[in-house]
Records
---
Amino acid sequence: MELYNTIIMTRKPAPDSRPVVLTIAGSDSGGGAGIQADLKTIEAGGAFGTSAITAVTAQNTLGVVSSHVLPIEEIDAQIDAVLSDFDVRAVKTGMLATAPVIAVVTEYVDDLDVPVVVDPVMVAATGDRLLAPDAENVYEDLLAHAALTTPNADEAEVLTGIELTDHEGTIQAGKALLETGVDAALVKGGHVPTDRVRDVLVTADDVKTYEHPRVDTDATHGSGCTLASAITTRLAHDEPLADAVDAGVSFIERAVRYHLDVGEGPGSVHHMVALRERAARQRTQEDVEGIVRQFVEGDVSRLVPEVGMNVVGATPYAEEPGETAAVEGRITRTLSGINPNRGVRFGASSHVARFLLSAREFDPSVRFAVNCRFDDEIEDALGILDGPAVELDRTTEPEPDVEGSTMGWVAHRAFERADGTPAAVYDRGDLGKEAITRLLAPDPETAIDQALALAEVIGGG
């Protein structure tokens, strides 16, 4: 490298081109919401974030200590500085605090021909008020210039006067918001105390409901800001609104589940979770490859079922089979040992991957799964595992739906019956279904130790 540097005195730049997003919102000293959440999310979404700070708040995961609205001329100067230099492709608004601030922001967006997403921030997740009461009615002028607004249930009630007690009321509130001139309204259901969260997107042509299980956590600080910023960033990439909302809802669901355990309060949503998931893929793939090498060297051929063995590894943030690494074509038994048919890639497994992901719903620390054959010898050997072995009767298994949820049923029944996380889940098969043992492990070392120990007890190939 030293010789190289003596020959090449200067390096040619390789600039990165990406869309610019402007967020106009308040600052959160705790880093979980506001401008800080917006900029993290925008960067995670592959855009360049610029900002205009409307207010400075002293807050943390426990609540808002104080709030100071900046002078209008300072807010005006920030927005003007950004717009006069950058090619802004989308704008997101958050905490605007007062009627004069909303008015100056409205003047700017009136002249812009880019998507504007309005998150009508009124109250923090901790219950602290972030909008002056006399500013509530001024939002209509701003909404008239917006492509989307993202109120939670409480904010939608304030803006429309409609009480959101059921799904139909949510739809009515969304339609009422459209009367302000906004192109679409995403009425969020996170504040509604139900087991499942329902977010409703209302446009002039359609109503779409996003429904998913509620994550059992209070660490939702910054969730509204993060969702709106994620959608705005997608719009800056010229994605259609429906696609941008789809991606944003999925993003925030993961960001809440894998929240950051920071502060003395509940914590913060994980703004960079998508980047962390992608960053973990190489290591996860290497871990699976390492497990497979150990299986080949240790000759675990007696464990290989007729359908073939697979080793599946999930990233720490995996939510779908495409985020799990597995052996493409599975591992087969040969006269000389075992043979991985092809290499390890993401998305190579469906069946075992779905089982692993379903198990992670009960214990997110589970990262690896291996499917093995099952017979009397293996049943006798399961006692050596460091963890319970659970038997299931697949003759009582429900018919698979379009998503192939039988693996969800297997995992649910296993964790229901086990005292803790099972080390193995086995069944004696059914008509057209081979008897199978499924090993679960939190790390590669445990997966290797479990399989090699079983193979040693029952004897080699």
---
Amino acid sequence: MPKQKSYYIIDFDSTFTQVEALDELARISLKDHPEREAIYKKIEDFTNLSMEGKLSFSESLAQRVKLLEANEEHLKLLIKHLKKKVSTSFSRNAAFFKKHADDVLIVSGGFKEFIIPVVSQYHIKKENIYANTFVTTGDGKIIDYDHANPLSEEGGKVKLLQYLKLEGELFGIGDGYSDFQLRESGLINKFFAFTENIARESIVAKADHVTPSFDEFLYVNNLPRAISYPKNRILCLVIGDVDPLSIALLKNDGLSIRHKTSFEEKYVKDVGLILLANGEKIENEKLKRAVKLKTIGYLGNSKGKLNLDSCTKMGIVIFDDAKSNPHNVSFIPKRVIDFMNTGATYMSSNFPNLQLPKIEKSHRLIHIHKNVPGIMAKINTVFAKHDINIVSQFLMTNQEIGYAITDINTEYDKQLFKSLKKIENTIKFRVLY
């Protein structure tokens, strides 16, 4: 029996982009208006009331368009702005949209005039973009919208999908009530509440799955993606009195953050990354049980606070700042993020220093092992057995460990990973992207 076709129905505002486009248009069109702050607030309130299902969409839309006082010149500025505001995890996965150009539909209560120029950059077909359209005067003033378009009405997305009669498995991704309505009506198989930009509690509670990033959606559905394992699944512990800037850097990278005063027992077996304030300690006994821990950033001198020898033997990369540089609030988190994203150990306290560019159209594998003779030969024998084409390979060693990074072409067999993990003297193995 042939596999059912899948369709991906994606919302635009606060999903494909980080912002609500009409709110942003108001900031452009009303920037010289004496009562602009009060009008912005009104527009935002109308947006939120409809997104939470407390006001009909048609009523909300009519009120917002009236308040805008926008024209075509303002639209040009908005498009330029929106192109820079595509949600990080969507822009990271541009290759998915190219590959699935026939299966992705943008369905939005927003407007084609600004949606088409933004999503077209991602190979999404014009005929797969369903949205409202503005009504303008001869001199380009936006005065109204096309009221005959079902997407301007309450339950418009439901009406549109009923009309389209798509055959196959339908996935909905969005942040608002109109997206959930598709699930409620039974027109889509699963609704994924997208929370990278905003989490609306009333919507999250009703979702089949909460997806804090598009990577998470692709991972759960076993679809091709830019990074192997979603960042939102990596538990990052921040311990002690840490500067908010350091935490913001980690949060912006999509990690799941817990800020605590101590290394609580309940996090020991699952933590993937730790950022410690200066003066904080980790007992060696706890460290040895933190089997998923990949890297520690220490905002100061870690001497006597962490057992570096244990960390090295476990394949945990340490970044600290022995000289207490005032820039360490951003420098240390950036080093930790860079290691998680590219495998770079540059400026590490306990690992051989390696800094590598990201290589497009390849997968990067990290293999940390005891520094004993013959391991690289074993690693490459595994690659040869699986007919893997190696794009590039780097090895750095110190007395304790070897750190090998291999970039391979995109085709591989999952069995390959099991074979690499089974090599004798392997300490840690992971796929970066």
